[in-house]
């Protein structure tokens, strides 16, 4: 296992490096002038333009830029954001927290409630409740996330005024507010964006789990367990769920990058200060160092997700372990 | 027009005795961009940064209610309590001795000199340096007196120096390399000289300011300002309606009905300096050294203008109050044409006749006019923006009706500027925020800038008669007539199709009184606003 893990980790590192090189090259080849956002609509004098070009190195050959970038990267330096004038690492750190919070809770709900519902609907496929759950999940999947978000905002934010319509925190909260107040405030601000995310995404793990469980629900070992008088809960947990987990593990690995990629529409609608909206803003402004920095984070997340999925495969599937 | 301009007016209601008890007040403003560099000179050119910076940093002088920029008496004192002229090229500004930086140090002449040095340093990339080209030198005469010398005489000297030279705290920044100021400790917590002090910025969320109780022009009426970053327009509207924010600028057309229906909100219409237009390229897109073979003919340019129903186009995108001008004249410059902005109505028959007179006929019956075998086909560049994209699509349909084929090329914003500077287009759907000074027309519409690379005259428009009128107006003692002639010349020669001069519709919660909103710097009088104690919310106390 250890050797396998080392080999798999090395593969992930090489892949991440290649992806990073491709990312840096592609971002530098994006059409558009990165200095446009800096000089504003009045334009710049030729002297200013020359100084800016020299400072940001926008006129240097691509190869030089890539080599310089990686030389700095190996020292942990992602450069400065062109539009914000502060280190890229600072900007990413500021935005990573809200994205991780929303993304991880979405994954948690999807892969707990979603999987449980998937298994439950597979065990009683003909019941009206199971059919209703399936239909509702498909409906949620079919509705674009921002439409679901707008409906939630209208109902709970504007009509009922139960929850804040947008934001990550109450801007009026005192700086010295106690931890309990801050936590309660976070939860209040989290409910609607989380609900919108879950409505839009829960159908996928639910349906995957349902399909995988349906394939085993009448398998010989399940029928044998029932015949032995094993309780329904134990049949579901021990004999149906675990063998039906493999495809869901793949899905989990693929979805892990969502933790850092964020959700552009949901973050926009709820004014959630995450990485998704940051990447959209940075790309629009051609803030090359920031786009590359955020892209690298995604590359790492994808590789980590893939690695975690492979490890989980071996945990849940003895055949994989032995191979 | 006049009514709109006056809507920068005070919307104050007289307070009753019971209401006269003051409350500290908190104002939360939803803004579409995050203020990441809210300070002048070394900050950014974004509106969000400028709006926050305006609360913390004063100018030497500010525009008066007339918004006039010509003459030595046009501006109102701010950091400079007075100014006087030594000769046609030299003005002395007397700084107000009561003015203080937020750390208690006095604002002195060397702060103005230092700011000028920073502005002139190419490394700083100060947005607007080209505008300050007429300033030859800025010198400290005494700690309270600044001498500004100009390269040439013109009636907007006080405006140029007084409005654009913002002092910077030399005592805090002089030792910091110019290129490092925007990453310095001062940039993280700027120390200014205005009615509000910086409190904190929560990245991605908001910037908070607190009233400066020792502000030398008087104590601000609202104790706390919060600029809340909400990128999405729908979210901004929702926050206003739910009462989580108090002010929303530039209410978009689709939201007007819903906002208007809220009894706790009032809408204020303010003249705007924005102008939308379709610019003609004077050069040949295929060979930018040559004149444009189609648009070089004024009859074609006029025909393209008359083919458009500009009123319908403007009202389909902008809120009520939008006007259609025939020249580069936003509502801010409404004073030039006292009867209001004027534009020729759509006239398809005349457009067709003009094209026919210019030799364009449909000889092959395909619905597109042609001349010498060449179809009347235009490449149209436009950015993917919610206002300009519909303009492009509507224009394409209307031009088609007179036999003109318009090929739209819709590009994302970062690609747009390099594309328009490349000159490889016939028509460019552009937008501009006009400077209060009409002399700024020289930057985009004069022969001097037509041949210079990198200027904002990307259409290379050059009309020597227009230049002469511009020059005369810049020094005229009768500015209305002189600038009227400039505008008149432009409307006859059609360097562009001017489509819309919109208003700025601002939504404000009813509990605020003394509300004054300015056309170019909407929030410069925010410190004079008050909260009606009878309507105060818990956050106001």
- The average pLDDT value of chain A, as a whole number, equals 85
Overall form of chain B? globular
What is the structural class of chain A?
A: mainly alpha
Question: Would you count the extended β strands of chain B for me?
Answer: 24
Number of strands of chain A: 0
Largest sheet of chain A: none
Proportion of strand residues of chain A = under 5%
Strand order of the largest sheet of chain B: 8-9-10-1-11-22-12
Q: Span from first to last CA of chain A?
A: 10 Å
Largest interface: A-B, 58 and 53 residues
- In terms of quaternary structure, what is this? heterodimer
The poorly predicted ranges of chain B are 1-19
Radius of gyration of chain A using CA atoms only: 24 Å
Tally of DSSP helical segments of chain A:
17
Q: Largest beta sheet of chain B, briefly?
A: 7 strands, mixed
Order of helices and strands of chain A: HHHHHHHHHHHHHHHHH
Number of helices of chain B: 17
Helical coverage of chain A, percent range: over 70%
Question: What characteristic shape of chain A results from the CA principal axes?
Answer: globular
């Amino acid at each position: 296992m250890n050797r396998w893990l080392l080999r798999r980790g090395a593969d992930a590192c090489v892949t991440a490096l290649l992806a990073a090189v491709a990312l840096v090259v592609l971002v530098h080849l994006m059409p558009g002038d990165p200095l446009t956002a800096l000089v504003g609509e009045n334009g710049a004098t030729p002297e200013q333009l020359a100084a800016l070009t020299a400072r940001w190195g926008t006129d240097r050959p691509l190869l030089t830029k890539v080599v310089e970038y990686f030389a700095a990267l190996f020292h942990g330096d992602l450069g400065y954001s062109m539009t914000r004038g502060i280190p890229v690492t600072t900007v990413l750190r500021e935005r990573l927290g809200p994205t991780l919070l929303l993304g991880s809770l979405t994954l948690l709900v999807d892969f707990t409630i979603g999987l449980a519902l998937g298994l439950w609907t597979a065990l009683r496929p003909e019941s009206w409740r199971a059919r209703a759950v399936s239909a509702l999940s498909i409906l949620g999947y079919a509705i674009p996330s921002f439409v679901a978000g707008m409906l939630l905002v209208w109902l709970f934010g504007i009509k009922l005024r139960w929850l804040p319509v947008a934001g990550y925190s109450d801007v009026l909260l005192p700086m010295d507010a106690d931890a309990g107040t801050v936590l309660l405030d976070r939860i209040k601000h989290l409910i609607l964006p989380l609900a919108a995310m879950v409505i839009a995404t829960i159908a996928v793990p639910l349906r995957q789990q349902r399909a995988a469980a349906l394939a085993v629900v009448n398998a010989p070992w399940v029928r044998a367990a029932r015949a032995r008088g094993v309780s329904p809960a134990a049949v579901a947990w021990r004999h149906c769920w675990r063998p039906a987990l493999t495809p869901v593990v793949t899905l989990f690995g693929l979805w892990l990058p969502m933790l850092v990629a964020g959700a552009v529409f949901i973050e926009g609608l709820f004014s959630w200060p995450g990485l998704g909206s940051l990447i959209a803003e940075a790309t629009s402004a051609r803030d090359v160092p920031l786009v590359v920095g955020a892209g690298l984070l995604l590359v790492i997340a994808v590789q980590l997700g893939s690695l975690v999925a492979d490890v989980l495969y071996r945990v849940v599937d003895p055949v994989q372990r032995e191979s | 027009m006049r009514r709109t301009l006056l809507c920068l007016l005070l919307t104050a209601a007289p307070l009753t005795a019971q209401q006269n008890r003051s409350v500290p007040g908190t104002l939360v403003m939803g803004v579409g961009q995050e203020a990441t560099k809210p300070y002048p000179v070394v900050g950014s050119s974004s509106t969000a940064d400028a709006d926050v910076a305006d609360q913390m940093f004063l100018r030497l002088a500010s525009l008066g209610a007339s918004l006039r920029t010509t003459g030595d008496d046009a501006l109102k004192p701010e950091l400079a309590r007075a100014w006087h002229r030594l000769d046609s090229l030299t003005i002395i500004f007397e700084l107000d001795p009561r003015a203080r930086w937020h750390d208690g140090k006095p604002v002195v002449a060397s702060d103005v000199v230092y700011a000028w040095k920073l502005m002139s340093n190419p490394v700083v990339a100060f947005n607007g340096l080209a505008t300050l080209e007429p300033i030859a030198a800025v010198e400290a005469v005494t700690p309270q007196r600044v001498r500004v010398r100009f390269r040439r005489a013109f009636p907007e000297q006080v405006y140029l120096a007084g409005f654009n030279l913002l002092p910077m705290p030399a005592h805090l920044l002089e030792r910091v390399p110019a290129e490092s100021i925007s990453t310095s400790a001062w940039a993280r917590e700027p120390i200014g000289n205005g009615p509000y002090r910086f409190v904190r910025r929560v990245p991605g969320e908001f910037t908070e300011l607190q009233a400066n109780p020792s502000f030398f022009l008087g104590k601000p009426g609202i104790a706390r300002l919060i600029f809340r970053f909400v990128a999405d327009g729908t979210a901004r509207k929702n926050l206003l309606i739910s009462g989580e924010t108090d002010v929303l600028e530039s209410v978009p057309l689709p939201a007007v009905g819903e906002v208007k229906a809220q009894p706790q909100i009032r809408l204020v219409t303010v003249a705007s300096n924005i102008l939308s237009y379709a610019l003609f390229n004077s050069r040949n897109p295929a060979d930018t050294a040559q004149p444009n073979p189609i648009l070089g003919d004024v009859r074609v340019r006029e025909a393209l203008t008359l083919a458009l129903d500009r009123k319908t186009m403007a009202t389909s995108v902008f809120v009520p109050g939008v006007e259609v001008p025939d020249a580069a004249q936003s509502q801010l410059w409404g004073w030039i044409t006292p009867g209001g902005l004027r534009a020729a109505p759509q006239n398809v028959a005349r457009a067709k006749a003009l094209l026919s007179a210019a030799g364009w006929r449909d000889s092959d019956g395909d619905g597109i006019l042609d001349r010498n075998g060449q179809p009347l086909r235009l490449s149209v560049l436009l950015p993917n923006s919610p206002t300009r994209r519909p303009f492009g699509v509507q224009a394409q349909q209307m031009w088609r009706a007179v036999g003109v084929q318009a090929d739209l090329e819709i590009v994302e914003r970062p690609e747009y500027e390099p594309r328009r500077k490349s000159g490889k287009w016939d028509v460019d759907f552009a937008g501009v925020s006009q400077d209060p000074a009409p002399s700024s027309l020289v930057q985009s519409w004069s022969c001097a800038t037509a041949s210079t690379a990198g200027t904002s005259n990307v259409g290379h428009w050059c009309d020597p008669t227009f230049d002469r009128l511009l020059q005369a107006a810049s020094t005229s003692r009768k500015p209305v007539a002189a600038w009227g002639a400039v505008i008149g010349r432009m409307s006859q020669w059609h360097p562009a199709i001017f489509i819309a001069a919109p208003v700025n519709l601002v939504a404000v919660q009813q509990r605020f009184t003394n509300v004054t909103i300015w056309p170019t710097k909407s929030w410069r009088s925010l410190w004079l606003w008050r909260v009606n104690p009878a309507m105060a919310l818990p956050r106001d106390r």
